[in-house]
Design goal:
This protein is an alpha/beta fold. Helix content is 24%, strand content 26%. It contains four helices and eight strands; from the N terminus they run E-H-E-H-E-E-H-E-E-E-E-H. The strands form three sheets. It has a three-stranded parallel beta sheet with strand order 1-5-2. The chain has a three-stranded antiparallel beta sheet with strand order 6-7-8. Strands 3-4 form a two-stranded antiparallel ribbon. A hairpin with a 2-residue loop joins strand 6 and strand 7. Helix 1 packs across helix 4.
């Protein structure tokens, strides 16, 4: 599986639209993973609780899939199942990843154990194009 760069974010997806569009324009796929307990439609929650493998709802623009899980979520499993083909996944609701924050038209990138960097969007995209953008 191709390496996926994970970035911890705290805001809503609309705060990252400029970056997402720039990454997509550069040919990269971007994912969003939310550990924040986003609400799930009650019909899907009920179906998932009944023992089905998956419960799926489809409307004109979205597909929502719910899969029952036992125990804690495992990042490696989530990436393999839901984000194959993504170059970058923005992760909300977790700690310990390089942290990205919007700051006055720029991005602040805080990598554990390294100095905080302030980058414009094009420089951040170029950084995320590298196999090991965070020095790991």
């Amino acid at each position: 599986m191709k390496r996926i760069h994970l970035l911890q974010v705290d805001g809503e997806a609309d705060e990252y639209v400029e970056l997402i569009e720039a990454l997509r324009a550069d040919g990269m796929r971007v994912g969003w993973l939310d550990f924040g307990g986003s609400p799930v439609p009650s019909a899907l929650t009920a179906a998932a609780g009944s023992g089905v493998l998956r419960a799926v709802a489809v409307d004109d623009g979205l597909t929502i899939a719910v899969k029952p899980r036992r125990g804690q979520a495992v990042m490696k499993d989530l990436l393999r199942e839901y984000f194959v083909g993504c170059s970058v996944v923005l992760v909300r609701g977790t700690e310990g990843l390089p942290r990205l924050e919007a700051a006055d038209g720029h991005w602040q990138l805080e990598v554990p154990g390294a100095a905080t960097r302030t980058l414009d969007t094009s420089r951040l995209v170029a950084t995320l194009r590298k196999p090991s953008p965070f020095g790991t």
